[in-house]
């Protein structure tokens, strides 16, 4: 058995999955290097949730109090109509599908907490990307970098994983027929830790403010089957054209988007692979099993996957560990991936008739006593999926 202690392991990607995995690998005695394409760590970002089993993982890292200290603090969520009238309002946890001790925070804050927890234990190489990869773990870095051999290479580089394409070939990404765009915008609505959602046929727009942030975040979710535009300017034009007929605050948000320095655009997609390991290469997080932003479970899958992969490598070794990790994780992944297609149908409505009916139902529900209890039933599938794994103690 090839043991993890002192093994040279390369993690490609310094996102949530990559930094969490690096922490656990170092905890088990590995010599860990993290390579990240970006020139520097990315702060801010959109809000994410830590739910169910992922809370246990963060608690076992001793970082749960730090994560809770930087929660978004969003207090309420409302659905608005084209005039800005609040059709329905509810507390933020119900609005965001959170139960029990689930925590919402900004992606950048969580990444920073994880990265700082690895200080002095993990080597980071920013502005570095894998150019070539052999099954035996030999890596050639881009921009004239030398070749190095690692005992294990882990792709934690997201839905569009270069590690995955080099090791497994192209494919594995399944689009759900929708797009997502997110960026920072001025808080011209004066939101105070509040989220507003405007729904049009095939087009949904969200705006929210969080604690400690002077600006706001705008998110656009919309349906379509055209190929994903390449390049930020083409993506912004594509988004603007898609929302050209929408009302409410959409025109002003689109105008503000032009100045955003953190614009993000992609298809709403899932990664579905028959296997997550080949040779001395394995995958974790979105690179292996992206559940899509519609699932609300990407961050939790990344945290749990990192914990299980590192733990199985430590107990079963570098040869058997990846296979044991997949056996334990796959049922959990399947349960959480099922949330994506179901949720996106509720988040983006297809027709004007569906929008009108939804607004009527929400307006009626908003006036009923005990609405929170009724709405809580909607989040039960999320909670079941978030807890659909029994975590070993490694």
UniProtKB/TrEMBL annotation:
Residues 8-316 form the FAD-binding domain. Pfam families: FAD_binding_3. This is FAD-dependent oxidoreductase. It comes from Asanoa iriomotensis.
